[in-house]
Design brief:
The protein contains ten helices and no strands. By secondary structure, the chain is mostly helical.
Length: 179
């Protein structure tokens, strides 16, 4: 999609046309929800996810986008429930476990979060974002040396992912302050 290369306006316009012209399409709604999230339109994204889930309650991307949007709006228990639905729909993939780990970590339930994050990394060892989240988790636990190593692996896997690079930079700044 165009939003993945930085053109969220073009992506939104295209997806809105698809939704307007054709029959209700859960995937298009879920994709537009993701675009709206990147544009900061969280309420619109939440509504689009609800519509997508109503059309196709078994669409993992709709539940995943909904989990992210709920987490971004501070609704962590609801986000955790949606992450659970992603795990239920795609038990062999790391994304749902990653989302659950993030929700638990944001709720400061770190001991509960760790097994989810580790399972996500086990199922998706080439996913730099999951590794980056583990690095942030190590940051929060004061394990800065381990965090740097984890972030370096994450950055090698996802060298163009701004969030991964930002997380790595944050850890390096923390390490520098503790010298």
């Amino acid at each position: 999609l165009a939003h993945q290369v930085g053109n969220s306006d073009a992506a939104a316009e295209l997806l809105e046309r698809v939704i307007t012209i054709g029959p209700p399409d859960a995937t298009a709604l879920a994709n537009l929800a993701e675009v709206q999230r990147t544009r900061g339109k969280l309420d619109a994204g939440l509504d689009l996810c609800r519509r997508a889930i109503a059309i196709d309650p078994r669409l993992p991307s709709a539940h995943a986008n909904y989990a992210v949007l709920l987490q971004r709006t501070g609704r962590l228990e609801e986000s955790l429930a949606e992450a659970g639905k992603v795990i239920e729909l795609t038990p062999g993939e790391g994304n749902g476990y990653h989302l659950a780990g993030i929700a638990l970590s944001e709720a400061r339930r770190t001991e509960e979060a760790l097994p989810y994050l580790l399972k996500g990394a086990e199922l998706a060892p080439q996913d730099g974002m999951i590794l980056s989240t583990l690095g942030v988790f190590d940051d929060r636990r004061g394990r800065l040396i381990e965090a740097v190593a984890t972030h370096q692996k994450a950055a090698a896997l996802a060298p163009r992912n701004a969030a991964v690079l930002r997380n790595c930079g944050g850890t390096l700044a923390l390490l520098e302050r503790h010298r």
